[in-house]
Write a structure and sequence with these properties.
The complex is a heterodimer of chains A (386) and B (292). In chain A, 50% of the residues lie in helices and 11% in strands. Chain A is α/β, with parallel strands linked by helices. In chain A, α15 links the parallel β8 and β9. In chain A, α1 crosses α2. The longest helix of chain A has 21 residues. With 292 residues, chain B is α/β, with parallel strands linked by helices. Chain B contains 15 helices and nine strands. In chain B, α11 packs across α15. The longest helix of chain B has 16 residues. Chain B is elongated. The two termini of chain B are 40 Å apart. The chains are: A alpha/beta (386), B alpha/beta (292).
């Protein structure tokens, strides 16, 4: 039996799939080999189907499998354009880092020791005379553009992340213990009755949880938003994790879905991937056009009746206000609330009078500034309450 | 493979028309003993498959409907606390030692079996349908994975309950959120799309034998075209069957006949206000003209 060459080819096929970003573990190799050993090799079609069912795990893998199968087993491959993000990030870390630095406007290399000052709790008697203890509150209220020192930037990013994480925890799904509620919490009643000689005197209740919210964030990455983008990205990163469902998109001349990049644990890698995605955006923002792309492609799956759409943009748009209004109303048909965060609102004497903002205002449920960490924190009730 | 032919024939006998890939998937799932994950739009017939499979292999269907906030208590087991409290109070006067009471109240009689526990304690392997797993949260997924790996459930008061028979597990998902990689790797996967007009025709004729072939093929072509329109809620196979039944009931012979009547029957297919407004008489007559 020609087991050895066949098994080598099969293992090669699995590697080929893994290179194409399939998630395949070791146990799959064993099963695949045993499948092929046991099957009647005469029916290639059946074997292909069996491998397809075994080795794919999601829709895009399902769609790509047949081509990859052909490419490998029948050498009828097609050249894929070199957008292999997994590979590129290794190289682009160097260049991506500098891209990001340019983007953030800082010329120094980002410091790795952001927490070096963490233990310092003495009173700092500097020119501005701020206490470290209240430094946090001050940071919360400082306009994000004004963070220039890379350590400050890193600290503010960390705070944004923490804010988001705290929000995430509070928006919880399980039944919570509550003083009053519709249902009785039998487990806790019995436990409490132990102290009362077995009599269920103390009655404790359970409340149905506040239903979780799905947050879809649209982040404008045009030039004027540069100083703010990185903080928002950290904030979004804190939200887009396991508990609260959240989705993130970049808006500029076109729409880019960045949820996966933002979920990356390695912050530097995530930033460089995002910088890469945001790269090559020349020209002015097309808010309406990008939102149209969202509505056509992603809206059905991304939005449900308990979702909140959050647009973070300064409202400078090169498209028509009518288009923006039209797309926003389409968005609102699916999402419950529309929140618009405009960093310019925090500037004194700013009035939202651009044509785009005027067109959008009637459709916005909550319009707020987004230029300080404090304003980010103030989002919470709007996100939690629906 | 005579067994595979039997699976597809048996499925057909229950009224479910599956394509070859799905049949392969089902057969592989039965052979390897691995759960099968079915993904696809709402209305393509994922839940139906589990029903058909159970009928085809002649076993029971146990269904666990997932939703946000689903936890172990609702999915696996729960103690009947009210009953237990009553039993304790009732026995208070009698001279029974605490150990005996404890043994009594933590016995099988007071255990409420939920779907997962029930599924592993059947004499004959049932089909366990875990519906819409994407609506449950990640913690539940992790627990489910554990159960699917060992096929045993631990109840602290009773000990570990091993499976008397391994259930055939089918999971469905509407792809509203990303499932964990661990779950995807554990399961076999099939993406189910809306059927082609030819296959849908087979389905309609299988479910409604009395329908005229000409009308049935017009119906399926119309539906195929309708699905390509920009609708909020794309009609599924169940809607097709409803519509076919409605048209048969109204004794409609052709789709390009009485337009007003056809238009009024579209309530079977269009389930939102926006869709009903969007599909005007002009659209209907255009689609009917294409289908005829």
């Amino acid at each position: 039996m020609q087991a050895a060459p066949v098994s080598a080819r099969v293992v090669g096929f699995l590697d080929h799939l893994r290179l194409n970003e399939f998630t395949i573990g070791l146990s799959e190799s064993e099963v695949a080999l045993s499948l092929l050993a046991g099957a009647q090799m005469s029916n290639a079609e059946t074997t292909r189907r069996r491998l397809k069912v075994l080795l794919t795990g999601r829709r895009d893998e399902w769609n790509r499998f047949d081509d990859l199968f052909e490419a490998y087993w029948h050498a009828r491959g097609r050249e894929r354009p070199a957008t292999d993000t997994k590979r590129d990030t290794k190289h682009s870390w160097v260049s991506g880092g500098s891209l990001w630095r340019r983007h953030a406007g800082s010329d120094e290399a980002p410091a790795n020791d952001a927490n070096a000052d963490g233990g310092d709790i003495e009173i700092e008697d500097g020119a501005d005379g701020r206490l470290i203890a209240s430094e946090r509150t001050t940071r919360m209220r400082t306009d994000l553009r004004e963070f220039a020192d890379p350590r400050e930037i890193a600290e503010a990013e960390r705070m944004a992340l923490q804010l988001a994480r705290a929000m995430r925890y509070r928006i919880s799904r399980r039944h919570r213990p509550a003083r009053r509620g519709a249902r009785l919490d039998m487990r806790r009643i019995i436990r409490a009755s132990l102290a009362r000689g077995g009599e269920p005197i103390t009655l404790l209740h359970r409340r149905p949880p506040e239903r979780p919210v799905r947050i879809v964030i649209f982040l404008d990455v045009s030039g004027s938003m540069k100083p703010y983008s990185r903080f928002f990205l950290q904030f979004v990163k804190g939200l887009v994790c396991t508990w609260v469902e959240a989705d993130a998109y970049l808006l500029h001349t076109k729409l880019v879905r960045v949820t996966d990049a933002v979920r990356e644990r390695d912050s530097v890698k995530a930033m460089s991937r995002l910088a890469l995605m945001a790269e090559g955006f020349g020209g002015g923002t097309k808010l309406g056009g990008s939102l149209a792309q969202f509505n056509d492609q992603y809206a059905k799956q991304a939005l449900n009746s308990r979702s909140v759409a959050v647009v973070v943009s300064d409202g400078y748009d090169t498209g028509t206000p009518e288009q923006l209004a039209h797309e926003l109303s389409r968005l609102k048909r699916r999402a419950r609330r529309l929140v618009w965060l405009n960093p310019l609102l925090g500037w004194s004497q700013y009035e939202p009078v651009t044509a785009a903002m005027t067109a959008a205002m009637p459709l916005i449920d909550h319009f707020a500034a987004a230029n300080t960490l404090q304003s980010l924190a103030e989002l919470e009730p709007h996100l939690a309450r629906l | 493979m005579s067994e595979r032919e039997t699976i597809s024939e048996r499925l057909r006998a229950t009224g479910y028309i599956a394509d070859e890939t799905l049949e392969t998937a089902l057969q592989l799932s039965l052979d390897l003993g691995r759960p099968l994950l079915l993904e696809g739009e709402a209305g393509v017939g994922k839940t139906e498959i589990a029903r058909a499979l159970a009928e085809a292999i002649g076993t029971r269907l146990i269904r666990l409907q997932c939703y946000e906030g689903l936890d172990a208590t609702t999915a696996i087991y729960e103690w009947n606390y009210q009953h237990q409290l009553l039993a304790i109070k009732a026995r208070e006067r009698e001279e029974i030692s605490p150990a005996d009471i404890e043994e009594h109240i933590f016995s099988e009689a007071f255990l409420l079996r939920r779907p997962l526990l029930e599924a592993i304690t059947q004499d004959r392997s049932p089909v366990l349908l875990i519906d819409e797993i994407d609506r449950a949260d990640e913690e539940f997924e992790a627990y489910l994975l554990e159960v699917l790996a060992d096929y045993q459930i631990t109840i602290p008061e009773l000990g570990t309950i091993p499976a008397t028979s391994k259930p055939h597990v089918v999971l469905t998902s509407n792809a509203t959120r990303e499932l964990s990689d661990a779950l995807r790797r554990r399961c076999l996967y099939t993406y189910i799309d809306f059927p082609s007009p030819e296959r849908e025709l087979e389905i309609v004729l299988a479910r409604q034998p009395g329908l005229e072939a000409e009308l049935a093929s017009q119906i399926t072509r119309f539906i195929a075209a309708l699905r390509r329109e920009d609708l909020e809620k794309v009609p599924g196979i169940a809607e097709t069957l409803d519509w076919a039944a409605a048209l048969a009931g109204l004794d409609v012979k052709r789709l390009d006949g009485d337009l007003a009547q056809i238009q009024s029957t579209l309530v079977c297919l269009l389930k939102t206000e926006a869709d009903q407004k969007a599909v005007t008489s002009e659209v209907t007559s255009r689609l009917a003209g294409q289908a005829a």
